[in-house]
Amino acid sequence: MTLAACAALLIGIFAYVFYVPRAAEEQHQKTRLEFLRERKDVVYENLRDLNFEYSAGKYLEEEYLAQRALLENEAAEMLAEMETLESMKDTDSTIA
Amino acid sequence: MPTFGSFALLLALVLCAYNLIAGAIALRQMAVGRGAQYAPERLAETARRAGIASFIAVTAAAFALVWCSFTNDFSVAYILHHSNRALPGAYKFSALWSGQEGSLLLWAWLLAAYGFVLRARHKVDVKLTAYASTILAGIQVFFVLLLNFAAPPFALVQGAVPTDGFGLNPLLQYPEMVIHPPMLYLGYVGFSVPFAFALGALMMRYPGEKWIHITRRWTMVTWLFLTCGIFLGAHWAYSVLGWGGYWGWDPVENASLMPWLTGTAFLHSVMMQEKRGMMKTWNVWLIFTTFLLTLLGTDLTRSGLVSSVHAFAQSSIGDWFHAFMFLVLAVCLYTYFRQRDHLQVEHHLESLVSRESSFLFNNLVLLAACFTILWGTLFPIISEYVQGSKVTVGAPFYNRVALPIGLFLLFLTGIGPVLAWRSTSLKSIRRNFILPTIVGLVTAIVLMILGIHPWQDQGTFYSLVAFSLAAMVTTAIFSEFLRGARVIQRHTGKNIVASMLQLTHRNTRRYGGYIVHLGVVIILIGIAGAAFNQSKEQEMGYHDTMTLGPYRLVCQSYTQDSNANYDSEYALLDVYKGNQFIGRMAPERRFYHASEQTSTMVANHSTLERDLYVVYEGRSQETDKPIIKVFINPLVAWIWIGVMVIVFGTLVALTPNLEAAMVARRGGHSPGVIAADSKASHAAGGGQG
Questions:
Q1: Which of B309, B484, B529, B588 could form a disulfide with B570 if both were Cys (CB 3.0 to 4.6 A apart)?
Q2: Of B475, B546, B593, B517, nearest to B166 (Cα)?
Q3: Do B7 and A29 touch (CB under 8 A)?
Q4: Pick from B217, B216, B223: which is nearest to B271 by CA?
Q5: Backbone torsions φ then ψ of B615, nearest 5 degrees
Q6: What is the residue-wise DSSP string for B418-479?
């Protein structure tokens, strides 16, 4: 009985581990563009938080405007780089 | 069944080793861009599957041990030493983690379970998960190696098999002990996952902070388990050890608190990395340290390195743990020095008065507390090494340091959320702090009028400060909720309660966090009550009376009882408050047959105001009357309520954000950020104005 249980466990696990479908999941290297998209989401979230907290009366107007300008500049730089990278990608695919 | 269990453990070792080696080879091949002839992706997939299968193998081993316990298989030495026929079913189950080998098996099983979830959800980021899975497999190899060679749970008894076991330690025969160790271990083991992701992200030079996003829930769940485990342990100590307290700064208690402190620091400081790309090196080392401290905690609990009330399992596995901790530290250091240029920060601290600096102070204070506790815990070992004699550090040392640190943390809990990111002006501070400060000061004045005089003694002083700070922080938290709710109210026209609910749902992480802070405040109020503890000990025969505080206890009878598992002695005490009958209490002392050990069952009448905590200390040798010790412990119930609030707050923080879902539905844009989009389009030269 014990031997049968051990054998069943071994065979079941062996089959599961080594019977891998042909198309295994590809390990993809994150690109700069993907990284920038993530960062953009974070900066947008920071902007949303800032707007909300200003509406809640937590910031003085001058603090709010200064912080908003900083975050918008950060987002703008990021979007500019993203547009450049996207246009380069489009050019690459057209040439190909 | 023991043979099957041993086989399953051996199989688990092979699978974990395969995951580690094959996974590492595949990652290496993919990193250097070779291996087209044998598809490293397929090798990596077999490694992942081996990791998943290791969960099945370890589960089979754990099942085998539980089976042996329930079938009273005393041929297995572990079952012989930790169970007996008369042991109730729930404790037979908990025998799994009552000794050295079983608790290591629980560690390995929980690690395999976490690994199973991580590997099953590999599509969140296949490459990063492959790194994390391989690192986790390395940790699994260590624990399964221990189980196969250093502490085998299925070792057989030599010679004739006894007909009954030696029983479970009586201290462990308490309902909370069925859930306290698994909770604590879920917390300890869970930190392996963010550790594996952090190390993996550093090894592969993962761009961005998404690894934090992936591990955020893991870290929060793990932190919640550790919190529950610590407080269940405190409640167990309060109910079973019978010394009237819940925290004795025992080395093993300290061992669980240290990773909690660094884990709490990590939970706060990763927000700075996520939001502003700051403190990357700090965060990586915080999680490395947290993981190392969980190993140290397990080592202290299991190796008997320091003497403790938790000396349920002592052995020589300490050397294995020390070697592993050294290896982990070496790998962390090597990876850090090789890849440290990857941890360049995107922003620096701009002002000492900002949300960032409050997080930084919070981190420094938590680390100072952790270092103090580490120093006190290891001091007996250090003193023995230096002087040749063990010098133990007692509760006064910890209290002297921990109380001011705790109060400063409480203060930071109040001010952090009302400070702005980047920098806060003095005018803004005045506007946001005026109400909490007034409430704090008024509380202090009212309490002094009511008789809490800070000049009486140090304990009263700390209590007064704690109550005032608690009032200040609570006001700050509620004004945060109110401020936000009013904005929602203006836009939706909903009432203030509905607006608060929507506000919380809109940003569950932040407002769930505030609820957690409120829980911490409630706990600290409960702890501050300890300054007013009272106790009295007296022999109590028939109709003898004892008075303490507002309570009068009258002994109605004292007697003995017996069942298959233990004999017991108890007293029946009628309790009156003034002339009002409160109830009957029955403090008890048990003598367990199998282990021939005694244990205390405390009788506790708990209210929000105070606990009436009664201990049956035994019989007087001269008069044969029971010796009864009574404690009045003010505000203890607040501690357990605070824990429940923390659990609720963490669950709220774990709930998905309403706003994130709405923004996703709108296509990733929110009205507040359109300006940035248009500005960016201008910057890119393609804007529409």
A1: B588
A2: B593
A3: no
A4: B216
A5: -120, 135
A6: GSPSS---HHHHHHHHHHHHHHHHHHHHHHHHTT--TTS-HHHHHHHHHHHHHHHHHHHHHH
Looking at residue B618, its amino acid is: G
For B285, other C-beta atoms within 10 Å of its C-beta total 17
pLDDT of res. B313: 52
> Residue B277 is encoded by which pair of tokens?
């790309």
Please tell me the distance from the alpha carbon of residue B571 to that of residue B635, in angstroms, as a whole number.
Answer: 26
- pLDDT of res. B248: 86
Tokens of B645: 């609030």
Phi-psi region of B91 (alpha: psi -120 to 50; beta: other; left: phi over 0): alpha
Of B51, B43, B46, B219, the closest CA to residue B132 belongs to: B51
Provide the pLDDT for residue B41.
Answer: 82
Give the domain ranges of chain A. 29-95
d(CA B320, CA B231): 29
At B339 the three-state DSSP class reads: helix
Q: Which residues in chain B land under pLDDT 50?
A: 668-689
The 3-class secondary structure across chain A, one letter per residue, is CHHHHHHHHHHHHHHHHHCCCCCCCCCCCCCHHHHHHHHHHHHHHHHHHHHHHHHCCCCCHHHHHHHHHHHHHHHHHHHHHHHHHHHHHHHHHHHC
Q: Answer for the pair B505, B483: CB distance below 8 angstroms, yes or no.
A: no
Contacts with B406 (C-beta within 8 Å, 6 or more apart), sequence order: B369, B466, B524, B527
pLDDT at B688: 32
Rounded to whole angstroms, the Cα distance separating B18 from B28 reads 15
Please tell me which of the candidates B4, B208, B679 has its beta carbon nearest to residue A35.
Answer: B208
Q: Is the CB of residue B650 less than 8 Å from the CB of residue B223?
A: yes
Say how far apart CA A21 and CA A33 lie, in whole Å: 31
Q: Does A85 touch chain B (CB under 8 A)?
A: no
Tokens describing residue B104:
């290591």
Average the pLDDT over each of A12-26, A31-45, B129-143, B584-598 and give the range with the smallest value. A12-26
Q: Are A46 and B421 inside 8 Å of each other by CB?
A: yes
User: How far is A96 from chain B, CA to nearest CA, in Å?
Assistant: 23
Residue B146 Cα, gap to closest chain A Cα (Å):
21
Residue B660's pLDDT is what? 58
Q: Which of B421, B505, B657 to mutate to test the interface with A (most CBs of A within 10 A)?
A: B421
- Test A56 with B483 for CB contact under 8 angstroms: yes
Run of H or E including B45: helix B40-70
Output the CA torsion sign for B645, B648, B654, B656: negative
Domain boundaries, chain B: 1-168, 169-348, 421-531+642-684, 533-638
Running DSSP on this structure, what letter comes out for residue B607? Answer: -
Strand partners, B573: B555, B585
Whether B226 and B259 have beta carbons less than 8 Å apart is answered as yes
What's the topology of domain B169-348? Four Helix Bundle (Hemerythrin (Met), subunit A) (1.20.120)
* Residues ≥6 apart with Cβ < 8 Å to B434: none
Contacts of B301 (CB under 8 A, 6+ apart): B103, B252, B255, B308, B310, B313
- The first and second tokens of residue B299, run together, are 């080592």
CA distances from B293 to B19, B138, B285, B374 (A): 25, 17, 12, 9
